[in-house]
Amino acid sequence: MPNPKGKSSRSKIGARRSHHRAIPQGYAKCDNCNELKLSHAVCPNCGYYAKKQVLEVKEI
Known about the structure:
Structural class: alpha+beta
Radius of gyration: 23 Å
Shape: rod-shaped
Strand content: 15-25%
Largest sheet: 2 strands, antiparallel
Helix content: 10-25%
Order of helices and strands: HEEEE
Mean pLDDT: 92
């Protein structure tokens, strides 16, 4: 098995890990109620998707 010849520097480790970060969710406004929702998903507030009623939302 090949082994590393020397210690990896902090910059080398950081460059390798540069893509290991949390990516924020993409939010969009609902066309029906203007609340924030996940894009390409049914609005949890009103139940609409693509200007059509998809879910029946109960009031709590």
